[in-house]
Design a protein that fits this description.
Helices cover about 0% and strands about 45% of the residues. Strand 5 and strand 6 form a beta hairpin. Strands 3-4-5-6-7-8 form a six-stranded mixed sheet, with no helix packed on it. The protein has a six-stranded mixed sheet with strand order 9-10-11-12-13-14, with no helix packed on it. A two-stranded parallel ribbon has the order 1-2. With about 190 residues, the protein is mostly beta strands. The N and C termini lie far apart (about 85 Å).
Length: about 190
């Protein structure tokens, strides 16, 4: 068969659309879904499917959820919701379709991992905490080449944990298990 083009006279695929596509479900009941299904087939594994869905959550407010789902006959239950975005608040869920925070990650077991990585062994990974007046008032840096974790506030180094596990407060190069460059105040006895 030939290629079909919408908005183009020279389609480059089985269906080539050069404009917008609307996918809708005209019912207005809670949990009604409009889906876009992307399927592949393997004689060894059967159908594999990636699905993009819009689900109506509330008929009064019109709030909805956008889901990216991986559906696979070999997966117990058949579907894994890979990511969800709620229209109310913009919460993003990875592994959950009901995120309770701006980002919630849940792998359905007792251990969930968030990995921040670089492609080589140099450079650094950073978590920035920002507000309206400062883009980085708090930071956690990991220096990959030095294997060094650095905690910063107000753009200044406050605490460092080096590759030996030594902790430095007020110093970026601790030579002992705990090295403090400054005063220490203790409310109880120190042994």
């Amino acid at each position: 068969g030939g290629n079909v083009g919408i908005g183009t006279t020279s389609p480059g695929a089985d269906l080539d659309v050069h404009s917008s596509i609307n996918i809708s479900n005209p019912t207005s009941t809670i949990n009604e879904v409009a889906d876009l299904n992307l399927r592949t087939y393997s004689s060894n594994w059967g159908y594999r499917q990636t699905k993009i869905s819009s689900t109506l959550l509330n008929t009064t407010t019109g709030s909805n959820r956008l889901d990216f789902t991986i559906a696979d006959a070999s997966i117990t239950g058949g579907n894994i919701v890979a990511m969800s975005i709620l229209s109310t608040g913009g919460n993003v869920g990875i592994g959950t379709d009901n995120p309770g925070a701006k980002l919630e990650i849940n792998n359905g077991s007792t251990q969930t991992e968030l990995r921040i990585s670089v492609t080589g062994d140099t450079g650094y990974s950073t978590i920035n905490f920002s507000d309206a007046s400062d883009i980085n008032p708090g930071q956690i840096y990991y220096h990959h080449q030095q294997n060094l974790m650095n905690f910063r506030t107000n753009d200044n180094d406050r605490m460092v944990i080096n590759s030996s596990g030594n902790v430095g407060i007020g110093t970026t190069n601790p030579g002992s298990e705990l090295e403090v460059n400054g005063n220490i105040e203790a409310g109880k006895n120190v042994f």
